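Reader question, answered in our methods column.
A reader sent in the components of a multi-part assembly and asked whether the whole thing could be modeled at once rather than chain by chain. We filled in our standard form and ran it. Here is what they sent:
COMPLEX SIZE: two components
ENTRIES:
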Amino acid sequence: MEFSSKLLSQAVEEIAQLPGIGKRTALRLALHLLKQPKNQTLALASALEAFRTEIIFCDQCHNLSDLSTCSICANPHRDNGQLCVVEDIRDVMAIENTGQFLGKYHVLNGIISPIDGIGPQDLTIDSLVKKVQSGNIREVIFALSATMEADTTLFYINKQLSACAVKISTIARGVPVGDELEYTDEVTLGRSILKRIPYEDSLSQ
Amino acid sequence: MEFSSKLLSQAVEEIAQLPGIGKRTALRLALHLLKQPKNQTLALASALEAFRTEIIFCDQCHNLSDLSTCSICANPHRDNGQLCVVEDIRDVMAIENTGQFLGKYHVLNGIISPIDGIGPQDLTIDSLVKKVQSGNIREVIFALSATMEADTTLFYINKQLSACAVKISTIARGVPVGDELEYTDEVTLGRSILKRIPYEDSLSQ
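And here is the structure of the entire assembly that came back:
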């Protein structure tokens, strides 16, 4: 696509580098911004710049934070003995929304994925192992997605932690609450039969 | 959605103001930027800022341009007597790609749309009428989309130009080249039968 303006062309090039946004969509977004008040674009530009340059990671759980220790890690009412390992901030938000977990988190900031060039050294695995070795953790709960990359990551970390006397668990897989059996995929349904639980356990929230 | 970081929250808010981008997508985009080199975000922010503050409109055709007269208007080989009226820069680019039009353009920078609060005074209609009244234009060709808003706009401008001795035409509507009849919608097919053209005319490219 050739543009009559270099400024437009540069803006479109940069917007189109975002995932899932092609050049046509980028042009539509740029033309939209042009019709809005100038302030909106300036606010967007400065918010992006401030976010990328000033944001820091919590020095304990590695979650995104404005302070050196995030509000969850700084909360004295949360259980230091339970550590929930997640991929990124979205998973922390999802689990916090359930209100069912009162321990602390450890954010990996990614998942082992050779195809994207992400290896164990790019994640916060060393910090996790050190934390567990320090001896205050009773249980490590893995709350990762059900993908092959997540399984690889879990396998790798589990090996690193094998020398530690810590309970390691993963979140339960099965038929989602409210789903109908006939629409559940075969793998999930098959596993949920193999990994069936006592009726009494299924009653507790 | 509540975030642990105000910087992240602001960035997501601003990104989510773009059309077609919700908060979840905005968060995904922000987290993507965080994994890319810092320079990419800074380049995006500065390209957006420069685009919005420095871009100007060609003083003749009102197309987006870096100079006060765009390259098409400044081209002495193009026919000053033919004026193609379009909605925005995307239509100029689409028509330029066909290589079939050698006149000049007039960009309305929008379309009359009461539902979006856009009236005739928000477009470059006055400038178009003045240009036609100056007397150098032989033909005004409307290349607008086939929507109700575009028809309203065409009707309005046509009325304004009725006092001028100028030929007014619109681009042909009909069955797209390469399309099969059975898949063409009824309105288009019906109109293309009513507005049938002599066989000889259909042969010329």
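What stands out: The mean pLDDT of chain A is 90. Chain A touches chain B through 57 residues (CB under 8 Å).
Send us your own complexes using the same form.
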